[in-house]
Amino acid sequence: RASYAHYTEREILKQLVEEGKNAKEAFDAAVAAQGADDGDSNPAALVLIGEHKTKIGLSELKNGSFEDPNGAGSLNGWIKEGDGRAIKVLGSDAPTNGSTMAIISTGLGFTTSTGSISQSFCLPDDAQNLVFDWNFYSEEFKEFCNWKFDDEFKVSITDLETKTETVLFQTSVNPLCGACTGEGKGKIEETEEIEACQSLPLLASPVSFDQGNVWYTGWKQNQTIDISAYKGKSVSLKFFATDQADKIYDTAILIDNVRITTAP
């Protein structure tokens, strides 16, 4: 019963907050996903009482720096799937704003579920840009540059009225590798030195994931995307990782200082 209550409550909140549904629509979605009761001989049942058309009024973007009052870090305001967390530090990298930042990954160690964080909110009538900082870590850099193993980082926005999702920004291992064509793993002779790989503008990380060497881009601050086409609308903003071709070599992305700027 506890698990039934947990999953039906989670589905209802997701439909109310993330999908912008009213109370009856959220209730119906929870029943469709979990059933009207838990199937026990003395079942717990989901019952809707009250105004069926009630909706949650969305506010502005919350907690874009992933903070909490105690300084431990929090995804308060965000919905996470897979590996999404708030952390204080990764290797030598600290947050760009405040004391904590978010991390999403293709599944670091304890999970193979790719990570995402998302939030639904109302954009102001004079919204102009989405601005955020990001830092891309991967075990695929250098030895798998410009192969099929091309883990991605994407940012999308969904118009909650039309349900249309648009990718605003994306990058991945291959474009961050530039002209590098990989080293070792049978693609080239082991004695052949690939200068493009060795001179990549990447940094060797002091942390390692489960497959060894990790390289990273360093913070790319103030990534700016025009979202004026969505001004005044209710939207869902999503940051997510995708795992291409395998689930062996891991990628993680740090995110911080997410904000909405307005037109002057």
How are the SSEs ordered, and which strands pair?
Elements: H1 2-18, H2 23-34, E1 79-81, E2 84-87, E3 101-105, E4 116-122, E5 127-138, E6 152-159, E7 164-172, H3 173-177, H4 195-198, E8 203-204, E9 215-216, E10 220-226, E11 234-242, E12 251-262
Antiparallel strand pairs: 1-4, 2-3, 3-12, 4-11, 5-9, 5-10, 5-12, 6-7, 6-11, 8-9
Helix pairs in contact: 1-2
Description:
- It is a single chain.
- The chain has 264 residues and is α+β, with helices and mostly antiparallel strands.
- It is 14% helix and 30% strand.
- The protein contains 4 helices and 12 strands.
- It has helices at residues 2-18, 23-34, 173-177, 195-198, and strands at residues 79-81, 84-87, 101-105, 116-122, 127-138, 152-159, 164-172, 203-204, 215-216, 220-226, 234-242, 251-262.
- The strands form 2 sheets. Strands 2, 3, 5, 8, 9, 10 and 12 form a 7-stranded antiparallel sheet that branches. Strands 1-4-11-6-7 form a 5-stranded antiparallel sheet.
- β6 (152-159) and β7 (164-172) form a beta hairpin.
- α1 crosses α2.
- Mean pLDDT is 84; it is low at 184-194.
